[in-house]
Amino acid sequence: MARPSKLPERRQADTRPAVPHSLFGEILDWMLAPLLFLWPISIVATHHVANQIADLPYDRQLGEHVMAIAKQVQVQGARASINLPPAARDVLRAGEDDTLYFQVMAPRGEILVGDSEIPGIAVGIVDEAQPIRFRDASIHGVETRVAYLFIPTRDPRAPVIVQVAETRLKREQLASRIISGVLLPQFAILPLAVILVWLGLTRGLAPLNRLQQLIRRRRPDDLSPVPLRIVPDELRPVIAAFNDMMARLEDNFEAQHRFIAAAAHQLKTPLTGLKTQTELALRETDTGQLHDYLERISASVDRASHLTYQLLQLARAEASHDGRGHNETVDLESLARAATMHCAPRALAKNIDLGFEEAGTAMQIHGHPLLLREMIDNLVDNAIKYTPSGGCVTVRMRAGADWVLEVEDSGIGIAAEDRPKVFERFFRVLGTGAEGSGLGLAIVREIIDLHRARIEVLENPAGRGTLMRVIFSRSGP
Questions:
Q1: Strands 132-139 and 403-409, how do they pair?
Q2: How many CB atoms lie within 10 A of CB 209?
Q3: Residue 451 Ramachandran class (φ > 0 left, ψ -120 to 50 alpha, else beta)
Q4: Is residue 64 part of a domain?
Q5: Comparing C-alpha atoms, which of 72, 77, 70 is closest to residue 147?
Q6: Residues 346 and 461 in one domain
Q7: Would you state the pLDDT for residue 429?
Q8: Rounded to a whole number, what is the distance in angstroms from the first to the last CA of the chain?
Q9: What is the DSSP letter of 119?
Q10: Residue 11: inside a domain, yes or no?
Q11: Reduced to 3 states, what is the DSSP secondary structure of residue 353?
């Protein structure tokens, strides 16, 4: 029986605004976002490295000036003097782009020669391995680079200090050329990288587009699996799950088609008999024979009505798997007692001893009350139907690690090879002589599966007959 359609719910869900989600855009974002984030960092790092590189040659030149001046310094005890020729002073002042300053400071702090604008410096320990040191300073608000040297005297705390300072114009020009040479190509490379990434992603996602076109070209009734050999490795788990879903859907459709065909055949039999009996009754003039025909018509109507009712119950049980049933906490023992009392008139009509054994405790489970009652009704009715006159049927409740419902009869029994088949739709054991549609135990199976329970078909331990045992977990479905 086909399950009720959920199209209205799906259409309602489809009207909700979809969250924009593009695999292509997401990959592109994750590739370009780090690049755009690292680019400013690379600019700062390039600027720092360029300044260090620009300082190297000019620092070397400043150091040479310091050494040249230091060679002219003469130290006698705690006193120092210098003889700096005018030509040497002119060389120190000959900077074209930058302004140079020099200074020689005596041990007592007086300037022997040079410019007083150079800031003083704290006296440090003379390092013979690195005699010339460098620092950054400001002269008249202009950033300068200073090279200095300590010349030791008799007093180690009062050396002669030689300093040469130079403004940073040449250094900044060299650093700018280095930065330009590094960053300008990046302005051309970055857009090219974006284009290449876009082209690479487009080509990389081309299998997705081909797969999409392959699925779109399929007929609506084509549920065959998608060949995995044409699917990229990353998509194979998804397509494998899709193929599994299509296989289950195809099995479901085939089961529905078989069920509809069988249901149509089962309904056709009582309706055909009903039509035949009606036509005979219309032509009959004998009152007694007419009454006989009407009784047969009534029996055919009852069979058709019972079959239709069971089909509707099966449809209800299947629909409950979709979560549309009403769940509540129910007492399984109370339902079994009520079902037994409801079937008592049928048992009395066949002279069958119908008994009920209670567990003496509230056997509560979470489930569908109407479906559970239908399940018990079918089990008890089935037992009465296949038990001959004078037999007995017992409905038994047992409480243990699980809740157990047993329906035991002294009927004709079920052969071992037929027990796995009795829950199939429209299956009936041959040679029983009992009327039925073959849907009762199929409905029982659907309801049991819905409640995550299990059923066992056993021989009656007391002798001839069948024992149906349904086991419910105490923790609920």
A1: unpaired
A2: 10
A3: alpha
A4: yes
A5: 70
A6: yes
A7: 59
A8: 24
A9: P
A10: no
A11: strand
Nearest to 231 by CA among 266, 207, 205: 207
Antiparallel, parallel or unpaired: β 353-357 and 392-399:
parallel
Asked if residues 163 and 146 have their Cβ atoms less than 8 Å apart, the reply is: yes
Domain extent at residue 110:
45-176
Verify that 331 and 466 share a domain, yes or no: yes
Confidence of residue 12 (pLDDT cuts 50, 70, 90): very low
Q: Specify the number of domains making up the chain.
A: 3
And the tokens for 204?
């990389």
Q: How many CB atoms lie within 10 A of CB 60?
A: 11
Residue that terminates a domain, selected from 291, 317, 343:
317
| One domain, residues 248 and 368 | no
For 180-233, what is each residue's pLDDT tens digit? 888 788 777 878 888 888 888 788 778 878 887 888 888 877 888 888 887 777
Average pLDDT of the residues in 443-453 = 84
Structure tokens, 37: 């984030």
- Is residue 227, in this structure, part of any structural domain at all? no
Judge whether 195 and 168 are in contact, CB under 8 Å: no
Residue 225 lies in a domain: no
* Percent residues over pLDDT 90 in the chain: 10
Residue 241: which CATH number? 1.10.287.130
The DSSP output letter for 229 is G
- 106 in helix, strand or coil? coil
Q: What is the pLDDT of residue 6?
A: 42
Percent of the chain exceeding pLDDT 70 equals: 79
User: Using CA of residue 270, residue 276, residue 278, residue 281, what is the dihedral sign?
Assistant: negative
Q: Is 70 exposed, middle or buried (0-12, 13-18, 19+ CB in 10 A)?
A: middle
Candidates 386, 391, 395, 381; CA nearest to 343 is 381
Question: What is the spatial distance between Cα 162 and Cα 104, in angstroms, rounded to a whole number?
Answer: 5
